[in-house]
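Retry 2 of 3 after timeout on previous attempt. Resubmitting structure tokens to design endpoint.
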């Protein structure tokens, strides 16, 4: 081993050369390596910042779209409710009109039926009167033993008797 050189204390020449090499290395790094490294760091920072801004814009756009979607859904629900309400009202109107028409038709049918019944009643009464008149003539001819010929005066007489009978019944 060498007497003046110990591992714990370096020699003066080693310190000088190490410092010179370090300064040269530092100069070369500063001249050629630092600008690209700093540019890469600045570009990376810029990309991160623009990505964050884009993400923020996308988030705001998503919030706006979500609000628009909710508004569109709300409008669609309101439109659906309006259509259903209008359909229900139209159905109710159609039912009311149909009921009214049915009631009117029923009234017309009832009136026609009453009129037909009244005509049939009158016809039946005329037929009964005729039969009663014929029977009365037959009875009178049997009683008198001679056949009476129907004449206008006899028919008037029989009709008067029938009217008196009708008045007595009512």
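Retry 2 succeeded. Sequence:
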């Amino acid at each position: 081993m060498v007497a003046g050189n110990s591992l714990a204390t370096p020699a003066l020449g080693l310190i000088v050369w190490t410092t010179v090499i370090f300064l040269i290395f530092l100069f070369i790094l500063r001249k050629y390596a630092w600008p690209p490294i700093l540019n890469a760091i600045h570009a990376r920072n810029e990309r991160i910042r623009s990505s964050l801004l884009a993400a923020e814009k996308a988030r705001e756009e998503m919030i706006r779209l979500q609000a628009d979607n909710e508004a569109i859904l709300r409008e669609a629900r309101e439109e659906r409710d309006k259509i259903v309400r209008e359909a229900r009202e139209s159905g109710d109107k159609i039912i009311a009109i149909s009921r009214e028409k049915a009631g009117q038709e029923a009234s017309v049918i009832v009136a026609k039926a009453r009129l037909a019944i009244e005509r049939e009643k009158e016809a039946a009464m005329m037929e009964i009167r005729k039969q009663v008149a014929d029977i009365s003539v037959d009875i009178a001819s049997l009683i008198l033993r001679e056949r009476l010929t129907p004449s206008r005066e006899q028919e008037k007489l029989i009709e008067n008797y029938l009217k008196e009978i009708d008045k007595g019944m009512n």
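Attempt log closed. The radius of gyration is 63 Å.
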